[in-house]
Amino acid sequence: MTAHDSLWVVLADGEPARILVPVEAGRYRTANSFDSTAAHTRSADIGSAAPGRSFESATTARHAITPRTDPHVEAKHEFVTWLANWVTEAAASGKFDRLVLVAPAHALHDFRAALGDAAASRIVGTLQRDLVKTPDQAMTEHLTYDVLHAGA
Predict the structure, then answer these.
(1) Which of 76, 103, 111, 116 is an S-S bond match for 14, by CB 3.0 to 4.6 Å?
(2) How far apart are CA 126 and CA 42, in angstroms?
(3) What's the CA gap between 32 and 53, in Å, rounded?
């Protein structure tokens, strides 16, 4: 990335992510793309296949302990957090001046919560939609003036 990229559009959905930059009025290109190491892995392959066991205090019976979170959901959250930290470091380095976040509601919430002040202060718009797999040529219809200048 170069210092002349004043606008970054971050497309994320919890596993894959892309950074778009404008190339000319209304046209964008993918400058970076990221994929989680757990993106195409089953939950059972990420964490333990079987829940843990607990002994009953009054008898010798054992009971399964239900996991608190799905390992796949947790891996998505970790990826979004990693991406937010990466974008925050890029903001602190002056790689962009304005930031637009595009993600489904759950990922958008996690992403905004994990962003540092350097990046959060540069958000000029958000869009709650999963556009990670949308080709660069089709982004113009989604990234309207209202989205790009909506404010935080």
Answers:
(1) 76
(2) 30
(3) 43
Task: Return the structure tokens found at 114.
Answer: 């994990």
Listed as ranges, residues in the chain with pLDDT below 50 are 1-5, 49, 152
What does each C-alpha distance from 11 to 24, 38, 72, 143 come to in angstroms?
19, 18, 20, 11
Q: 70 is written with which tokens?
A: 């799905």
Separation between Cα atoms, residue 6 and residue 44, nearest integer Å: 42
Residue 84 has a CB neighbour count (10 Å cut-off) of: 22
Backbone angles phi, psi at 16, to 5 degrees: -80, 160
What stretch of H or E contains 148?
helix 145-148
Q: Are 88 and 119 in contact (CB under 8 A)?
A: yes
The pLDDT value recorded for residue 147 is 79
> Positive or negative CA dihedral for 106, 108, 111, 115?
negative
- The two three-digit tokens of residue 56, written as one number: 């009953």
Cα–Cα dist 96/131, whole Å: 21
